[in-house]
Fold this sequence. Notes:
Distance between the termini: 13 Å
Strand content: 5-15%
Structural class: alpha/beta
Strand order of the largest sheet: 1-2-3-4-5-6-7-8
Order of helices and strands: EHEHEHEHHEHHEHHEHEH
Bound molecules: 2-phosphoglycolic acid
CATH topology: TIM Barrel
Number of domains: 1
Number of strands: 8
Shape: globular
Radius of gyration: 17 Å
Amino acid sequence: MRRKWVGGNWKLNGSRAMASALAGAIVDADIGSTVDVALFPPFPYLREVCAACAGSRIVVGGQDSSQHEAGAFTGEVSAAMLRDVGCATVLAGHSERRQFHQESNELVAAKVAQALAHGLTPVLCVGETLEQHEAGATAAVVGNQLAAVMERCGIAAFGHIVIAYEPVWAIGTGRCATPQQAQDVHALLRSQLARDDATIAGSTRIVYGGSVKPGNAAELFAEADIDGGLIGGAALQATDFVSICAAAG
Ligand code: PGA
């Protein structure tokens, strides 16, 4: 039985005060005992959120990290730095990074490898655009996104990776995938892992992201291969995020 996982991706939102208050309210709700919960604030607020989550079961992560160890890479944040400030996890290949920063499947795989090397749990985001969805290319697109990481990191790495299926057409649009649509893609991803190792495939958490709200979370999480969610907009309201976590627990 896979324990459910829920992440809150705050994206480019908030302030120091808001980060402390939001993390504090989520910690106070005491949701961490039945579900694994992770918060992904903007980099400058990691310390505040780590401080608020200290002593709780909630872990904190970066929204991105560099494929490089260190050096002349202005603007980058390394996996080692994230560890150093108290992070346990990091997003890799979010569609907004792939779309607005031209992150390729190979670059995302390199970031996952670097995060793993520093003991962070990478949350590998995959998902197709609306155009790809309408062209019937979903399976090929997400299959290639996953294959790049399997090739680079090996199947054993998926004992330490969370996969987030986030159809780009569902992110921030209010147009959530149906539970069946998401389930079908999750099952496909799991079978791709299973071709290399069925045991690891059976234990890897595959979570869904894209317009998850308190009102649709339970039906999504009830699907056999949906192991929780990566939450954007609804993660900015403590009550909404807590009720989504409760739906997973
Ligand atoms: P959303 O974002 O919940 O606002 O659709 C999800 C995500 O981008 O992780």
